Known about the structure:
Blueprint lengths: L1 H36 L4 H16 L2 H22 L10 H26 L3 H9 L4 H31 L11 H12 L2 H38 L1
Amino acid sequence: MQSYFLVILHGSLLTVSVSLGALVVAIFFGLLGATAKLSANKVPRAVAEIYTTVIRGIPDLVLMLLVFYGGTIGLNALLSAMGSKTTVDIPPFTAGVLTIGFIYGAYMTETFRGAILAIPKGQLEAALAFGMAPWQAFLRITLPQMVRYALPGFTNNWLVLIKATALVSLIGLQEMTYLAKQAGAATRSPFVFFMFTGGLFLLYTWVSLIGLNKLNARFSLGAKRGEL
């Protein structure tokens, strides 16, 4: 039994890798989507609206399977249409990271959009009036405040994203949920191993909460002082 627990612990490292990789992808799509939704141009606004509506309306499992199986078929069909004999297989790790990141990018979009809207417009206008370039105003004025307003929603999205990594076990990625299922089948004690896996997920989210709460306290420090 001990060897199975060690194997699951090793698989937890892959779970961490998938969740962190998916977080980077989600932040990218979230910032892109928020920027598009706040754009004065109707086209990016419409595309972002379709993205968030569709993604939030389709179950994560269906999207995972669509990317893993449908993505491979679509890429190979495209290469074949271009006259190439090359075939492409999407690795389970890549499919998992991209799919989970793409899904939670839709939720991050709304989180970041709400955070940006919470910042008084006069601050950005003042920065531009003082001669700052738009990118300078974003980095010095918008971004620090956006982080403070976005952290509560970001924390919730991150905790849900961590749990969603269990879905990658269905496409053959040997993270801790997959390994717990294999260990349970081999020993006929699935409850023990799934309880152990659940405890690892709980530990992971607990450590994340501690770190994010400290980050939230740091970014809120100046705001709390200003309110006194």
